Amino acid sequence: MTPARRAPPPTLSVVAPVYNEHASLPEFVRRMTAVLTGLGETWELVIVDDGSGDGSTQILEGLAAGDRRIRPVIFSRNFGHQIAATAGLYLLARSMAAIQAIAAGPLVEPSVAQRVARFCVDAVALLLPRLDAVTRTEWLLYGAPDAAAFAGPMGALVVYLALLTAAGLFDFYRRNA
Question: pTM here?
Fold first, then answer.
């Protein structure tokens, strides 16, 4: 028996880092679910629990058990909201088109800095056009592709890891300078 193929990825994704939000988490999810459902598109809500110690983790797990569109990412300790947001965006980075849409979105003020940021995102998209191919779970279900199909995405992954390492080293240097 062949397992059923997964549904295509959602059209909309929202990332929300949380830390010790047990009181407001259910209401936040209720409101976001109402808004996203009202848009008429497929969606997911990626909630990154940044090591909460107040029961937020259990509430989040319960909410996710009731709705498959809610995707929890749970950290073992607090790393800071920047890392939590980055982890959520990493999950969404399977689609460079999503990141390009964010960079060019209607909420972005037209400025030189915005144009530079958009250029940088487009440059990363040019370097990593097939990053989504590396993160597909279909490979786990249906077997790895042939070597030719595997080489391109793995090369993109190496470039992505190099860029991520460079950004981390830059941040480390900046904090210690």
Answer: 0.52
